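Entry 14. Structure prediction run on the chain below.
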Amino acid sequence: MDASTWAKAPDFTGSPERVEAVRTQTVADKQNYLESGMQPVECRACGTTVLARKNSFNQTSIQWTADPATSCTEYAKDETQPRSLRETCPRLRSSIEHAVMEGILEVRDRD
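Output returned:
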């Protein structure tokens, strides 16, 4: 394949309607996956607040509202592994599970 014609993803430059449809869907996806249903949960151990969503009992989405290395003592302890590869703080996970049990954080799909 000629490198000058290859693109990682189509850009739809010849189809403004398609460009707008993709842009609209991207906005909707961002809302659905990154913003919708996120609720603040405070770690009961250190007080760090994150945004969390439970799509099911097995799936949890977490967005840190501050740098975890400066706001979470568990993260600050271990700098040997990149943050993106670490499991979340066990104390935070426990706080999220507690929020679910207390009905503070809703599980969207209970099946």
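The two ends are 46 Å apart (CA to CA).
Filed with the rest of this week's runs.
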